[in-house]
Structures are given as C-alpha cells and as structure tokens.
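Page 47, continued from p. 46.
Same chain as before, 233 aa.
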Amino acid sequence: MQAAAVVVGRLGLSSTPLLATRRLTRMADTLSRPSSDLAKFREVYKKAKHVVVLTGAGVSAESGVPTFRGDGGLWRTWRAQDLASPSAFARDPSLVWEFYHYRRELMATKHPNPAHLAIAEAEQRLTAEGRRLVVITQNIDELHKKAGSKEVLELHGSLFRTECTKCQEIRPNTDSPICASLAGKGAPDPNAVNARIPESELPRCQKCSGLLRPNVVWFGEGLDNNVLQKAGK
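Result:
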C-alpha cells in the first residue's frame, strides 16, 4: 500500500496534549523522509493511494487566525495555565468561557485561505480517482471544513462544539453569542482574576442543564482515543 504524508503549517509539538501527535508525525516519517524536492513529491503523490495532510496553526495564519506562540500569539498575551487547562476551568469557568467565546466570535469572521481550498480541491480530485486524502489537524477553527474538506480529523477538538461536564454529551454549537451573559464581550483582560459572570449564567446543556465546556483539548488532557484510532488507519 502506497501512502504519502504532507505537512502544512507549523505543528506545535512541545506541550503535553501533543504527545500523541508526535506519534503521528513519526508515523508520517516512516512513510517517507521529509523532503523539499518538488519533483520527488509529485512522483510520490501521483502514486499514493492514501494521502495524509498534517496541518498546524500556520495554515490558518493567512486567514487572520492568531497563532499561539508566534508574533502576536495568544500565549504572548494570556497565560495558558489560566485559560486552557482543566484546573483553570474548575477555578474560574467564567474567565475561561470569556476567552473561548472571544475566540469563537473571532473565528466566525474568518474564511478559508488558498491553502485550505487547495487541500479541499485535492481531496475531491483524489476521491474521483478512487484515492483518499485525509486531513489531520491541530487547529480548532473548522476552516478545513468550511473550505469543503470532508475527511478531517481534529486532534484538539473544535471551538464550535460543546461538551457537557455532567452528562458528557458533545454537540455542535455555532450560537452567537453562545449565551446571553457573554453577548458583547471582547477579549478578556490579561490581568483579570475573575470574569465575574455567575456560573448559572454560563452555557448550559440542553439535555441535563449541566455546565458546558468547549470541546477542545486543554493542557494536561489526552487526545480523543477515537480520533487517534481513525488517524492511525
């Protein structure tokens, strides 16, 4: 079975939630050593029955999506441990939701760029030829899906899904605002200690009224086993 792996954008491999991504990257390395030889790439790509495209924050940067550690990156303004960890959510779900609501509203204004569109078009062509292209992304902005990609594995979840902390139900959510108490909220103050929104007014589960959280992978959490199993195939 012939396969090819394409890496697009920067893959951040330094934090705990990305340990499994290292395995995926090593898997890609075993298929073919990284190369900038375009002629060689075309040769391998032409023969490949299965193509995996690995994308990181860099692929969405051209769409105006802030990266995490580059110039103007999110973690240069806010501290990850205060906003993107289970302990942060347990300590102050209001502040965490203010941050993620800001990101949801920002992402909703962004559009796929030529890289997203090219990947989606490549998938369509390969599918018509009886071949397969799968996108494995660290991004949570859903821009690959907006571009038309059908086979997308989101390693770190999505800003536009919620997960109930009580019944664990996961469902799509594109509401704007996600709840009335967050309407009109902008970026949270980097020095804020509390966002001061009562927990009862934060997003709630339609099924059991439990507190919702963003369906994203936070620092200190493992990746979704179902997604990893699909990626391994």
